[in-house]
Amino acid sequence: MKAIKLLLGLMITGLLFTSCIIEEDYYDNGGDVVQPISLNTLLTDYDLWYVDYHRTVGTGDVPFISKAFTLSFLNGRVYANNNLVDIGFAGNGLGIQIGNYSTFNEELQVSHSLDGGYDFDVVQINGDEIKLIDRFENVTYYLEGYNKSTFDYDQIFYENIEYFLQEYVGWEKTFTSVTGVVNEFDNENYLAFTPENITTFYSSEDDFGTNIDLINWDYVGGYEIFDVTGYENLKILTLDYDLGDNEEFELVVLNDGLIELYHVDSDSTYEFTGRDFIQYLRQAGKGSETVRKEGRKRTKVIRKTKDRKKHLK
């Protein structure tokens, strides 16, 4: 009996000792967490991996990740949601297939259908967060794991709204409130937001119903979008015209093709409808095809020499 007790004691001690070693190794890796499960199991445990693009570090770029809001890994295939428009519906929520993948230990190999092959070191930060490290391109991306049933597709609009505005060649004014003070923005019927020079916008006074490809873009400038403390579904949009004027709006997304702009100074409300959807996202990176229809009349911007306030005279 004593021998049996001694043997059991040694077994329990051994298990406890082993557990301590695993726990110590699990967290002791220079601040990074060692993979507790196989990489393939980790990647497929979640339906979607949200690319937190704002946390990206490094000087390089992996085009298919830079263009993606989410990535999914399923049976050797890689899927991506590259657009905000129709997100949550395209590909049953996963988006479109963009390539194939394989795993080996903590390495992920992706063969993109257009961009070619990429190798990543994968580090698990916690149970639902990883980082993809491309040492050749010198860039690290942070991804957060979600299941479709708990993923807030709508909130992505507000977390990445600057990219959402770029998903249409132009936005046409389709509603103006009867309230509000007459102002110079009343005469601008089209807006366009492009990724060139980070944040560039164009506006036009062309008549309603004009083909978006035939728009003469009268004004050009830079735009910025700001958060509003305490509001997750409201943004501030500022238009800084090259001619010196500035406009400020409260921006609300009504749906994936309609936005509302409340003009702060005049108390006027406008609605703009997206025209000519661009199926891609973000400015194309190195080695990637550019799907955006380059310029599309924007390269022939006609800059008005008169002050915009002429409409109020």
Key traits:
8-stranded antiparallel barrel; 313 residues; 5 helices; alpha+beta
What is the average of the pLDDT values?
80
Count of helical regions: 5
Order of helices and strands: HHEEHEEEEEEEHHEEEEEEEE
Given as residue ranges, the uncertain stretches (5+ residues, pLDDT < 50) are 1-30, 281-313
For the biggest sheet, the summary is:
8 strands, antiparallel, barrel
Number of strand elements: 17
- Category by helix and strand content: alpha+beta
User: Strands of the largest sheet, in order across it?
Assistant: 1-3-4-5-6-7-8-9
Overall shape: elongated
Gap from first CA to last CA: 105 Å
Instruction: Please estimate the helix content.
Output: 10-25%
How big a fraction of the residues is strand? 35-45%
Question: What is the CA-atom radius of gyration, in angstroms?
Answer: 25 Å
Explain what this protein looks like in three dimensions.
This protein is of the alpha+beta class and 313 residues long. The protein has helices spanning 2-27, 39-44, 63-66, 153-159, 161-164; strands spanning 48-51, 57-58, 70-74, 77-81, 96-104, 107-112, 116-126, 129-134, 139-146, 168-176, 190-194, 200-204, 219-228, 231-241, 246-255, 258-263, 268-277. The chain has an eight-stranded antiparallel beta barrel. The chain has an eight-stranded antiparallel beta barrel with strand order 10-11-12-13-14-15-16-17. A hairpin with a 4-residue loop joins β16 (258-263) and β17.
Summarize this entry quickly.
This protein is of the alpha+beta class and 313 residues long. 15% of the residues lie in helices and 39% in strands.
